[in-house]
Specification:
- The chain is α/β, with parallel strands linked by helices.
- It has helices at residues 19-30, 49-53, 71-82, 98-103, 105-133, 154-174, 206-219, 230-238, 242-248, and strands spanning 10-14, 35-40, 57-62, 87-90, 136-141, 179-186, 223-226.
- Helices cover 46% and strands 16% of the residues.
- The longest helix is centred in the middle third of the chain and has 29 residues, at 105-133.
- The radius of gyration is 18 Å and the shape is globular.
- The mean pLDDT is 91.
Amino acid sequence: MRDSVGRARTVLLLGGRSEIGLAIVERLVRDGAREVVLAARGGVETPPGVLAALGASVHSVEFDAAQPDAHTGTVAGAVGLVGDLDVVVDAFGVLGDQAAYEADPASAARAAAVNYTGHVSAGLAVAARLREQGHGVLVVLSSVAGVRVRRFNFVYGSAKAGLDGFAQGLADSLHGSGARVLVVRPGYVPTRMSAHVAPAPFPATPGQVAEAVASGLRSGATTVWAPRVLRPLFTGMRLMPRALWRRLGR
């Protein structure tokens, strides 16, 4: 449960090795969280020492995005370790390479399953638990890549578009339950996963995304952008004629 001043005590990170996800967890620990569960394939044998140094107890559970039948069990395992879940950060996924996906459609389908359908099963499992608790926030890492899909990464972008829509619908389904969803739309973030991608305008660091999430949790926001300038920028891009958008997406 949250403490007497409303700070989250427990955090579950789905995607326990995600750089952005870990930055969010560290930010929440600095804000007072004391029980952290890192969920990843094979578990997380060596959790970041900074979390323990900040006073958090760190646990690990098995989580495989490609095994939807096991996702309810992952959530139950986390609850068994720390009790009620105050914040669940949904941060798993793969970026991949568009040209490689076009050359190997089966690999594209596998990536899309991780980036979309894995989130459907995990998100519904988390929502069921939060609804039962009557409180808690599911933080979903979407992307501006899904706001309007571009040619150069349309396999990834289309999965993120689906995830964004799913997260918004899930938020509506939780309305009135005491639980809620926070959708996060970062732009380009330099991480190990994006190392092969050319930098884009208005980048954000993992720490800046984490700060946006912390601010959104405090304010009760439903959506945050990182950086915030992307919100009006992509509002305009949604209205851009398709022929022009196609040229920009090359």
